[in-house]
TrEMBL record:
One of its GO terms (molecular function) is DNA binding. InterPro entries: Bact_Cytoskel_RodZ, Cro/C1-type_HTH, Lambda_DNA-bd_dom_sf, RodZ-like_C. This is Cytoskeletal protein RodZ. Residues 19-62 form the HTH cro/C1-type domain. The chain crosses the membrane at residues 116-138. Keywords: Membrane, Transmembrane, Transmembrane helix. The keyword Transmembrane helix applies. It comes from the Bacteria. PANTHER family: CYTOSKELETON PROTEIN RODZ, PTHR34475. Signal peptide: none annotated.
Length: 322
């Protein structure tokens, strides 16, 4: 028990003093202890005096102290525990010196700036990705809206042009009146034929066949003569009233063209590179769904300037006359 008590020094003694007393009790010199660890004697003296600043690092210091304690017969673990308690104030002092170093503050600011720049970079990437997604998705929605608006645009001209067929019906009914008048005028002619048939009967006693032949020949001539009158009375469009419209497209565009009678010449979605060539009775009513998607417009072979017509939301509606 006495040997154990002598081998374990008091806990309040410094580690260097504990090692020095144990070395002297074992009858060893500083040089012998240093030679056993392959160290300089000055390192052993620094450990015994508590001048730990001469040791390169805390890791090496603990290694030297552990070996020294085993060499002089002390409990290495308890000595290392005492050494940790002694080094705690030194650690705190080094931490304060490190924090007070201006270079450390500069490095800390640089690290903070790098974090802010990295965050901004990721935000910019997200913003660009969102813009590209919005730019690619919007054209599809615009074309869908143009197609949904197309039926509403086609209904308006139909409502405006509904009276037109009613005006043409009386013209159509008037044609039979003219033909009936011509036929009625031709009916009395057989009454006048007896005067002309009498001489024929004297020339040909069997005049029944001879009389019927001239009558059959005269009837077609009477029916054919009203045909020019029918063409004039009908009031149909002549070649001089026909208009030709040519459009070339550079992008997706909905287009509708109607003639003077309300006939729909074209109503469809055209794509880049497409073109239309339609003809109808002038004036022609044109609806362009995307003005910037139209390359060229030619009416009656002459170019048409779209800038002279009013456009709302890239949509223009105008009338072309000869």
């Amino acid at each position: 028990m006495a040997n154990d008590e002598s081998s374990q020094p008091a806990m309040n003694e410094a580690v260097g003093q504990q090692l020095q007393k144990a070395r002297e009790a074992a009858g060893l010199s500083v040089s012998e202890v240093a030679g056993a660890q392959h160290l300089r004697p000055s390192v052993i003296q620094a450990i015994e005096s508590g001048d730990y600043s001469q040791i390169d690092s805390e890791l090496f210091l603990k290694g030297y102290v552990r070996t020294y304690a085993k060499q002089v017969g002390l409990n290495a673990d308890s000595v290392i525990a005492d050494l940790d308690r002694e080094l705690e104030p030194i650690r705190q002092q080094r931490e304060q010196e490190y924090e007070a170093n201006p270079l450390v503050d500069i490095e800390r600011r640089r690290r903070r700036k790098r974090q802010v720049a990295r965050t901004l970079f990721f935000l910019v990437i997200l913003g660009v990705a969102g813009y590209l997604a919005f730019a690619f998705l919007m054209p599809g929605q615009d074309s869908g809206e143009a197609q949904s608006e197309a039926p509403g645009v086609t209904e308006a001209p139909q409502e405006q042009k509904e009276p037109a067929p009613e005006t043409t019906e009386p013209a159509a009914t008037s044609v039979p009146d003219a033909s009936e008048a011509v036929e009625l005028s031709s009916v009395p002619e057989p009454d006048a034929e007896p005067d002309t048939l009498a001489p024929l009967a004297t020339e040909n006693p069997a005049g029944g066949d001879a009389v019927s032949e001239p009558v059959a020949e005269q009837i077609p001539t009477v029916v054919e003569t009203p045909e020019p009158a029918l063409q004039n009375v009908s009031g149909l469009a002549t070649s001089s009233d026909m208009a030709r419209l040519q459009i070339q497209f550079t992008g997706n565009c909905w287009v509708q063209v109607r003639d003077a009678n309300g006939n729909q010449l074209v109503s469809s979605l055209q794509r880049a590179g497409d073109s239309i060539d339609v003809s109808g009775e002038a004036p022609l009513k044109v609806v362009i769904g995307a003005v910037d998607a139209v390359g060229t417009i030619r009416f009656q072979g002459e170019p048409v300037e779209l800038g002279s017509y009013r456009a709302v939301n890239n949509r223009s509606e105008f009338t072309l006359t000869i």
